[in-house]
Structures
1.
Amino acid sequence: MEKGVVKRAVLAGYRRCGWTRTRVHILRHSMASRVLRTGVPMKDIADVLRHRSLDTSAIYAKVDLTKLSAVALPWPGSAS
């Protein structure tokens, strides 16, 4: 395989998506956030990202606070 072919393919994909960032971390962030939204456990996401700590993986997997608030229970003792 010619050197740089994968990198060029990824960069071309970024351009098609309209992404201005070209670092690999955007792929890691996107993957982690998307699979978290589908219900994949954080431990599995950490394994795919090869993280030892779930806290590190949580940086990549952004939580959808709107959806989370829809299922969250009221704080004990609160008025609601």
Note: Helices lie at 5-17, 25-37, 42-49, 54-60, 65-71.
2.
Amino acid sequence: MKRFLPWIIVAAVVFIGYFWIKGINNTAVALNENIRESWGNVETSYQRRNDLIGNLVNTVKGAAEFEKGTLTAVIEARSKATSTTIDPTNISPEQLAEFSKAQSGVSSALSRLLVTVERYPDLKANANFLKLQDELASTENQILTARTRFNEAVKPYNNHVLTFPNSIFAGMFGFKEKAYFAAVEGADKPVEVQF
């Protein structure tokens, strides 16, 4: 029995090591999938807003002799925002900054559109326009919620892959730190609305 003891100890160490490393990898995979799902929810919320913008623009266009510059700015911002894509498996701070900048352009153009609409009392009373305006407000809340949940999914993943000794094995398996969704530059300043 004594001659098998070293082999039993080696086998036990290998067995324990295998399941420990497997646990590190499988946990990282599961947390990474949570991030991908959360990012999909962020994109879905932004897509909903982009879909609503088309309806809003058509409603406004049909109800008022509208300022073409503002309308064009909304359409261009929407187009730019939909062309910016991110791979959720490799989210970097630079990609998130670019995505945020594009979405900020949409928000800014929408704000100008809604401020300009104030000059058209018939349009403000239009039931379709009011419904779309409410839908946009609801969608902005969904976007905020989706972005918050994305950041909540990133935190446990980063904690898992950055803590020692997990960081050694996570790096070997190709798992690296993910970026958080941050506010766009200048978001800390109050918005100035002029009529």
Note: The CA atoms of residues 33 and 75 lie 33 Å apart.
